[in-house]
Amino acid sequence: MPHLIEQNIDTNDDAFLYLNLHADEKIHYIVRHHWAGFLGTLGLVLGMALVPIVLLFISGALLDGSLEGAGPIVFLFISGFFVFLLTFLFGSWINYYYDIVFITNKRILNVDQKGLLSRGTSELPMKQVQNVSAQVEGFLQTTFNYGTLVIETAGAGTSDDPNRPGLQGYFTIHDLPDPNRLARIIIEFHHQAEAEDDPS
Question: Which run of H or of E encompasses 88?
């Protein structure tokens, strides 16, 4: 999944100005959430889209054509329902696509998109990393090699998902590609940060 984990990043790109990188900090990896993590939302929307079609079929069979005069109202209701579904799908896709994890030589930056005009950024210094583990659970995650990255920290916990909050002292990021590789990368940067603090 090379398209989900980018390397050789130009840190001078204006697109990264909002990260407020330190003078000696360089972005080494940009990680996007795995597309399979979006399948649940997509399945929900497709299931909801079938509801008015099924209701029309059932009402047509039971009422035997007595809804012919209500055609414009039914059409308006169904149109509004599909507009709502498309709006929900678009907002969910924006949140999914623009949630990005930046791994630098100094920090892990988790950018959490919240709608069209809002984003939150949580960060974890490499020096505070105590342990890193990857959780790959279930058939889908095992097949597509994605899962949850759990980083034990010396500080407060956080999560990229408000419905699945991070435990105290744990920095959790869900639906990341190749989490075992990312865990190894973070541990290497942690060792480098420790070595810089202890030149002896």
Answer: helix 71-97
pTM: 0.79
Answer yes or no: are the C-beta atoms of 176 and 147 closer than 8 Å: yes
Q: What would the pLDDT profile of 17-45 be if each residue is shown by its tens digit?
A: 778 888 888 899 999 999 999 999 999 99
* Backbone φ, ψ for residue 156 (5° rounding): -75, 155
- Name residues whose C-beta falls within 8 Å of residue 4's C-beta, 6 or more positions apart in sequence: 31, 32, 33, 34, 177, 178
Domain tally for the chain?
Answer: 2
Residue 141 in domain: yes
What residue numbers bound the domain in which 191 lies?
5-17+27-33+99-197
Question: How far is the C-alpha of 151 from the C-alpha of 134, rounded, in Å?
Answer: 9
Phi (first) and psi of residue 154, to 5 degrees: -90, -5
Residues 106 and 171 in one domain: yes
